[in-house]
């Protein structure tokens, strides 16, 4: 383990296509599939826009994690967002999700392990949820490069049940680290 640590603050899932996901007492991660009972679980891509492009694409977006600190950041701009409302499965605290390299393994709770595949691509559904919010979760850094703050995506390597209060520990990949890109 490399020491980057955080905590699960909320878990969410939804068996129907909807932007938001209700909070749960726990969720179960299934290896190679995603969150049990969640509409986005599966070996191949489940997000509607990606299915329309190519339904045989591998599902690199099985579990969506978002840093709860984002909710405080957007609250300062007048937006009220709660866990699950941006469609994430796992809301975290204390770990820099956006700074993790591609391929990082996140050990969550007693058993579950997810592999970070990339950044969530913020979509117009965020704007439809609250007008002006999309601009808050997509910005630019000092060099003018686009910065996406809408969380990260991952695939399940080892299944297990996770719940609020569980510890998250990052295990970084060997070799040169690749920064996260949109998936």
Gist of the model:
The chain contains four helices and 13 strands.
Explained architecture:
The protein has 183 residues and is α+β, with helices and mostly antiparallel strands. The chain is 13% helix and 32% strand. It is built from four helices and 13 strands. The chain has helices at 48-53, 69-75, 124-129, 133-137; strands spanning 5-12, 23-24, 27-30, 34-35, 63-67, 90-93, 105-108, 112-119, 138-140, 146-148, 152-158, 160-162, 167-171. The strands form three sheets. A seven-stranded mixed barrel has the order 1-6-5-11-8-7-13. A three-stranded antiparallel β-sheet has the order 4-3-12, with no helix packed on it. Strands 9-10 form a two-stranded antiparallel sheet. Strand 3 (27-30) and strand 4 form a beta hairpin. The longest helix is centred in the middle third of the chain and has 7 residues, at 69-75. The relative contact order is 0.26. The mean pLDDT is 94.
List keywords for this structure.
three-stranded antiparallel beta sheet; 183 residues; alpha+beta; seven-stranded mixed β-barrel
By helix and strand content, what is the structural category? alpha+beta
Distance between the termini: 25 Å
User: What would the principal axes of the Cα set say about the shape?
Assistant: globular
Tell me the number of strands: 13
Q: What is the overall number of helices?
A: 4
Helical proportion?
10-25%
**Strands side by side in the biggest sheet:** 1-6-5-11-8-7-13
Largest sheet: 7 strands, mixed, barrel
The pLDDT mean sits at: 94
Rg calculated over all Cα atoms:
15 Å
In terms of DSSP E residues, the strand content is 25-35%
> Unreliable runs, pLDDT <50, ≥5 residues?
none
């Amino acid at each position: 383990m490399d020491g980057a640590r955080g905590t699960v603050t909320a878990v969410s899932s939804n068996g129907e296509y909807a932007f938001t996901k209700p909070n749960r007492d726990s969720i179960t991660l299934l290896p190679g599939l995603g969150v049990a009972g969640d509409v986005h679980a599966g070996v191949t891509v489940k997000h509607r826009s990606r299915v329309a492009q190519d339904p045989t694409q591998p599902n690199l977006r099985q579990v969506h994690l978002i840093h709860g600190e984002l909710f405080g950041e957007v609250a300062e701009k007048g937006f009220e967002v709660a866990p699950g409302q941006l469609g994430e499965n796992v809301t975290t605290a204390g770990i820099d999700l956006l700074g993790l390299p591609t391929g990082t393994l996140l050990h969550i709770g007693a058993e579950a392990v997810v592999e970070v595949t990339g950044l969530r691509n913020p979509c117009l559904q965020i704007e439809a949820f609250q007008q002006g919010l999309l601009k808050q979760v997509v910005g630019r850094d000092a060099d003018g490069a686009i910065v996406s703050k809408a969380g990260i995506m991952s695939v399940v390597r080892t299944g297990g049940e996770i719940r609020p209060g569980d510890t998250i520990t990052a295990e970084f990949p060997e070799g040169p680290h690749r920064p996260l890109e949109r998936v």
